[in-house]
Amino acid sequence: MDPVSPAVDRQLATAAAAVKLRLAEVSHDVWRRLIDDIPELKADDPLVGVLVAGVEANVATLLDVLQHGIALDALDAPAAAVEYARRVAQRGIPLHALVRAYRVGHARFLQWCLDEIPQQTHDAALTRAVIRRLLDESFGYIDRVSEQMISAYQHERDRWLLNQGAVRAVRVRALLYRERIDPHQIEANLGYRLDQHHIGLVAWVPEANSSVEALTRLDRLTIALADELSCRGRPLYVPCDEAAAWAWLPLENGKHVAWERLAEAAAARDSTARVALGDPAAGVDGFRQTHQQALRAQGLAVAAQPGTQVTIFAEVGPIALLSADLDATRGWVWHVLGDLADHDQKSERLRETLRVFLATNGSYQTAGERLAIHKNTVQYRIRKAQEAIGRPSQDHRSDVELALRICHYLGSVVLRPLEN
């Protein structure tokens, strides 16, 4: 039998009309199942009231779709359901709870319809066709509406974070700018202890990848990094604008930080967001210091071309300080490296070989192993690099090492462009 035949439409419409006569009972069953199965939704009475309204609106709308053949591509989510998504975002209830609510609710709704359809006909082939049509239409509805709910949640979560962050930012800035403050009062207002070790963090979504849910993404990324460090409490998160945030990760006793693991965690959580991190530091002064270092590292990350996803002050401190004046830094690099500062593939190969060679205490063998080339190739490249510089690198080794590190992190920003 044709699954879209008039007979299928009539039987599905009849079944939907029969279920709609029990709308209040069906809706009650669905929202009670949501409350029982999803712990995050067990909130206060006002929020549950909005959930009840949203469930009833969704059930009624989907039954109308099935009964009257309403096209899904022009359908908007019920207002009560959208409002519930907004309220859930404001409460900080995780998005996965909202998404799961639609799956669980859909399953309960289908059970009511599947119980009703056999009551309308004893034709097995027709019953199967009606069930297939029910599944197609109901899954299509859930897919369309849940996407709208996700969008509403993310937009509201960003707006909420930004508004809440504005209040929090006033107190944080007072602390950073050394205004007259009561640290104990600030701690109470922020819900964050100052008499501990912190890592300052600046996170942002580059403009090309920014979207309405940027702050929500950065909030989740911050929590993921705190989890990776096994932080002793929740991080302090302060949105700066629609696509950037400051944060402080609380550490226990300033323990050793596995920076590589943090970089891996950031890549796994959100591959397009970028992060800059300061060194661990203690107390109120450390709170300020690690934040300033994170800002310095961010400045370097923004200037670098192409740059890396995670920039750590402990690795780039001197370079970050120098990059505050890029013109002066560029001129100094050109002076120290000579022709080795040219922006071409040959010079880049020689720079990287010399950088690794110096970092391995001048060992051709070790440098070759790190670069996966023969030690004789390393020896040849070092000779060519020194010819490009114009004098032996050992004569001013510290300057050459720093200049090479600057080139490594900042890239084309500090290199000499080739003439056409």
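Above is the first protein from milestone M3; the second protein from the same milestone is given next.
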Amino acid sequence: MKNKEKLRKRFLRDPFPRRMGGLAATLGRISSSARNSNDPNVVADLLDEARHLIEWTAAEAEIETAAELVRMQRMLTLWLKAWDESSQNPNQRLLLSVQAKDWSDRAIDFSGLL
């Protein structure tokens, strides 16, 4: 992830609901990119970004929300480690896309923005 410190500082200025909205947007981009991108590095960068967004936010969440965010983060880490190989398999790409969409919806729920 490029400019991680700059992203962290900007991200942490936002209130919790907006951070969850930002996480939801990143997860949505993972969903879309896993299906459509020809560059596996795009998805890998987004997976890494989402892991960091969770790291920077989970401590401020309610305990149940934090626990779910940490579970999400673990799965994102597993996807990131397997992405080089998984990116070559259309079924794996679809699976990540569906899972990331579900996570995005959960992050929006956590945000309370809707």
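Note on the second protein: The mean pLDDT is 94.
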